[in-house]
Design a protein that fits this description.
The chain is mainly β. The protein has 2 domains: 190 residues, no CATH class; 90 residues, no CATH class. The strands form 3 sheets. Strands 5, 6, 8, 9, 11, 13, 15, 16, 18, 20, 22, 24, 26 and 28 form a 14-stranded parallel sheet that branches. A 13-stranded parallel sheet has the order 3-4-7-10-12-14-17-19-21-23-25-27-29, with no helix packed on it. A two-stranded antiparallel sheet has the order 1-2. Strand 1 and strand 2 form a beta hairpin. The protein starts with 5 loop residues before the first strand and ends in a 5-residue tail after the last strand.
């Protein structure tokens, strides 16, 4: 059984749940080395494997990683749970692990990189979980070429991609659309890069930066979200958003509806497009720097607040 207690972080009304301690598999169905042709729900994987079968009906975890430096290649297969298991695939605090090439659905979290360093999630689809993909308490992780869509319930806790208290995380070439709460959340930690990604049609924010330092966002589209396309909270520092757009944001409970809501004065915006939002294109506090900001057709009397737009 996985040891340690269930830990939860609540940020801006969002619960992020992962389990602490070493991972040894909720169902304790065996430890599988390389070359295993069939894996079962709850298997602890200690050497690199390529799946040859789907895993369905998992009541606990799907797969738990039990060693550093290994790859789980889902090989186009699906791991599906009943909704009660903590994770479809969990890194279990190990370093240098890769989870790639498949679909995970029906868990509290689809994929977790928890602790350790240099973990990679690549070409994974996480859908129908409460949370799609989470990197927490780790360093130098990468979430690339992955899709986190329709996780959580509308207006309820449920995010596409969450980076929590992590250092130097790369979120690149990902899609985080239609999730019950946020698309891409960066909460705490420092040095996260989000690039060439899409966070559309989420039920609260497209991209949230909260309590994090030195976050860089480049080439990200956050259209048709509810509340805000991009939301940088006052406790974030040195956030940069460049070559990004947030159009057609809708109000949430009669408030907001901004393309970008920027509450941290150390934020720098450049080459942004925020058109046709329910409120402002950019609603920023004094001190925010914006260059080449385009904002047209927003419904608030001013397209931009406290920054110059054209």
């Amino acid at each position: 059984m996985r040891t340690g207690t269930l830990q939860a972080w609540r940020h801006a009304g969002v619960w992020l749940c992962v389990s602490g301690g070493a991972a040894t598999g909720l169902l304790a169905l065996g430890v599988w080395p390389a070359g295993a042709t069939t894996l079962s729900c709850g298997s602890v994987v200690t050497e690199s494997v390529t799946l040859t079968n789907d895993l369905t009906g998992c009541t606990g975890d799907g797969l738990d990683i039990g060693a550093d430096g290994i790859t789980i290649d889902l090989n186009g297969h699906t791991i599906s749970g009943t909704g009660s298991g903590l994770a479809g695939v969990s890194s279990g605090g190990h370093s240098g692990v890769t989870i790639a090439n498949g679909t995970v659905r029906g868990f509290i979290a689809g994929v977790t990189l928890q602790g350790g360093s240099d973990g990679t999630v690549r070409s994974v689809t996480a859908t129908g979980n409460q949370f799609g993909i989470i990197a927490t308490g780790t360093s130098d992780a990468a979430i690339t070429g992955s899709t986190a869509v329709k996780n959580g319930l509308p207006g309820d806790n449920g995010n596409g991609i969450s980076v929590v208290d992590a250092t130097n995380t790369l979120v690149s070439d990902d899609v985080a659309n239609g999730n019950g709460f946020g698309g891409i959340n960066v909460i705490g930690g420092d040095g996260t890069t989000v690039e060439r990604s899409v966070a559309n049609s989420n039920h609260v924010n497209g991209v949230l930066v909260q309590g994090a330092a030195d976050t860089t966002v480049t080439g990200v589209t956050a259209n048709d979200n509810i509340d805000n396309g991009f939301f940088v909270r006052s406790d974030a520092s040195n956030t940069s958003i460049a070559q990004s757009r947030a159009n057609a944001t809708r109000e949430y409970g009669g408030t907001n509806g901004n393309g970008m809501l920027i509450q941290s004065p150390s934020t720098v915006l450049s080459d942004t497009v925020t058109n046709g939002n329910q409120a402002h294109g950019i609603d920023a506090v004094t001190g925010v720097t914006a260059t080449h900001a385009i904002a047209h057709g927003n419904k608030a009397p001013a397209d931009c607040m406290n920054v110059a737009c054209s």
